[in-house]
Amino acid sequence: MNRRLLIITGLSGSxxxxxxxxxxxxxxxxxxxxxxxxLPDFMQRVGEGLNLDAGVAVxxxxxxxxxxxxxxxxxxxxxxxxxxxxxxFFEAADSVLQRRxxxxxxxxxxxxxxxVQEGIERERQxxxxxxxxxxxxxDSSNLNSRQLRDLILTYLGEKxxxxxxxxxxxxxxxxxxxxxADLVFDVRFLPNPHYIDELRPLTGLNPKLREYVISQPACRxxxxxxxxxxxxxxxxxxxxxxxxxxxxxxxxxGRHRSVSIVEDLYRSFPEPDVVLRINHxxxxxx
Length: 286
Description:
By secondary structure, the chain is of the alpha/beta class.
C-alpha cells in the first residue's frame, strides 16, 4: 500500500468537497468526516485489506468532534507509524464564503442561530493553528471548479516544483477592478475601436479587431515593456511559493482593447514554465 495520507481540511465552503472528488478520480481512497480518533486504526485496516497506488485522503474539519484538540497528537502518531502526511488547508475570502452559502442556502456548521459571517469568523479563529502547520494552503476565492481541480492536480504531480498558474483576465474599468488581480495594467491609452463603426460590434476575440489593436505602435511599445517585466516577475513569484497569479488588463468596457491584448498575450506568453488560464470578465456586458 502507498503510505501517503492526505488530510483535506480548512474552512467550510472553501472547496474541500471538490478536492475530495478530484482525489477520488486520481485513485485515492477518500473518506469524508471520519472521526479523528478512528484514523490510526482505519489506516491500519485499509493497509491490510487494500493495495492502493495513490494513497488515502481523509476530509476532516470542524464537523468532527475533538478534531481541534486531538489532531496534533494523532497526526504525530501517524508519522511515527511511517505515513507520509500532507495537510491541504482550503480557505477563501469571507465575502466569497458568504456568497457560496447564500447561493446554496446551506447553513454554516458554526453559525447556529447567528449569521453566516459570525460562523466564518469563529471557524477561521479555531483553525488558525492548524492552518499554520499545513503542508499546502489553497485559497479558492477566485478559482472555479475546473481551476481548483487543475491546481490540485498540479500539486499532486509537481509537489516539489513551484509551478505557477497565471490567470490572464480582461475587464472594463466601468465595472470596477477585479478583486483578485495581482497585477493590473490600464490600456485605455490605446485608440478605442468603439469609435470605428465597423469595429464597434466586434470584440477582441475577432481577428480583425484584434489585429487593429495589436498593430497600433503604442500597443507594440506596451508589449515591448510588458513582456520583459513579466519575464522578470514570474520566476520570483515562483521562488516565493506563490501558486497562482492574476494579471488583469483593463480598458473602458472590457470588450475591445483589453480582450485583444489578453488574447495576444495568451498566444505568445513570455514565460513558458507556467500554466495559463484566460478569462474575459466583461466581454458580454454593454
